[in-house]
Specification:
2 copies of one chain form a homodimer. Chain A is mostly helical. Chain A has 2 domains: 52 residues, Arc Repressor Mutant, subunit A, CATH 1.10.10; 144 residues, Tetracycline Repressor, domain 2, CATH 1.10.357. Chain A contains 9 helices and 2 strands. Chain A has a two-stranded antiparallel ribbon with strand order 1-2. In chain A, helix 1 crosses helix 4 and helix 6 packs across helix 7. Chains A and B meet through helix 1, helix 6, helix 7, helix 8 and helix 9 of A and helix 1, helix 6, helix 7, helix 8 and helix 9 of B. The structure holds a DNA duplex.
DNA sequence: AAAAACAAACCAATCGGTCTGTTTTTGCAA
DNA sequence: TTGCAAAAACAGACCGATTGGTTTGTTTTT
């Protein structure tokens, strides 16, 4: 029929060992993130993760020495992906609007929405909170993730910190950024726990309006 | 010697059964909160809780049908205590300052610090985050705690919502309150995870200053 | 004496991790 | 190219430890 391969055995593409490694690690990491989102840190057991990945225990053991290493690898993969996305956001916001084109409020609102969508919604948000809370009481996990967390925060700050400057006697740019991040984080936790959207969009819009009165485009 | 009791057996005060019930529930609930703070939701095993409480498994079973009920009872006790404290804060801030005495910024800063101290520090903060995150993936726990969470938020809002009103075209009082709560929450999570204080006090002060420009004392 | 409060042994289920054995890929010799 | 042994990749049974929960029996209050 449609079997050009000489063997009639179950069709299994021949993959190089390097390809296998990449595939397997990717599948395991994705399953780990899915499991963390679905069941939380305490629900993400090896059994659940391996079932989602369709991977045997032995195969897992071949790639990771412990569950901590798998979770840490998954967290690093997700957070490092976020660092790259933060740079994208900076580029998107910087471009698209000719200098002085749109009023600062619109640019700020767009920036806020972009950050919100990519970092404080969906799986990224859920896993972020699970890991952050788990880090509080798990020193080993915290040691592994602390540098990546810090890197993400710095990248996020770089996305907009140097595109605006405080106006008059407004708080320093760094302080405004932290206020913004904390606010988004608290809002995200509210929505993660309570479920649906609780009018967060309107609130972010108000915050953009307030910010617009406090900053001006950097020269 | 100093044993006025007629029996030479280990001195054990005779307590009424009602007293016993109260004591035992209190001890178990306190131990549960301590365990949640120390080990997180996934580290708060029955074994750890009972060891902290110095209570046998059988005694525990006499009072709670499942671990969920114990955790829920502990959460309710803590959150309901917080609701009462929220009212105290409202009273403290309202009194002490004769009408128009201190400038709005000082009153707001004091309010912010009071709320911060009582709700976003120490065991209360840690347990709050553990439970909130656990609720996301535990429907039974969420069903039990959602009403108490909502009650706390309302009580916290009542503490200051009606003492100020937005100035000019500032956001509605309700929106300013949610912005504030979210900001404090995000800041608290930062400190819970990263450990020490990261300049949060200065940031809260800045926020009070911004708020002062947006609200005025209600008539 | 009855009931409530308490203690501790016990249980099945599940956890992370290891062990042994099989299949697939690879490097090299013929 | 083909043959083939070593190595890597993979599968699943197995293990002790720990989990939440139950059961049986003793002490204290009523």
């Amino acid at each position: 029929m449609d079997s050009p391969a000489p063997t009639a055995k179950p069709v299994r593409a021949r993959r190089s060992q390097e390809q296998r490694r990449r595939d397997m690690r990717h599948v395991l990491i994705e399953a780990t993130l899915d499991s963390l989102q679905a069941g939380g840190y305490h629900g993400a057991s090896l059994g659940d993760i391996l079932a989602r990945a369709g991977v045997s225990r032995g195969a897992w053991a071949h790639y990771f020495d412990s569950k901590l290493e798998l979770v840490a690898a998954a967290a690093e993969a997700m957070l490092q992906g976020s660092v790259a996305q933060a740079a994208d956001i900076a580029a998107d916001i910087g471009a698209g609007v000719p200098d002085g084109g749109a009023p600062a409020e619109e640019r700020l609102a767009a920036l806020l929405e972009a950050v919100w969508r990519r970092f404080y919604q969906g799986r990224h948000r859920d896993v972020l909170f699970e890991l952050a809370v788990a880090c509080r009481t798990d020193a080993a996990l915290r040691a592994r993730l602390a540098p990546v967390f810090a890197e993400l925060l710095a990248a996020l700050g770089g996305a907009w910190g140097h595109r605006f400057r405080p106006r008059g006697d407004a708080p320093a740019m760094d302080e405004l950024m932290r206020l913004t991040v904390y606010m988004l984080r608290g809002m995200a936790m509210q929505e993660a726990v309570s479920g649906g959207d609780g009018g967060g969009a309107a609130l972010r819009r108000q915050w953009a309006r307030l910010l617009a009165g406090l900053v001006e485009p950097a020269p």
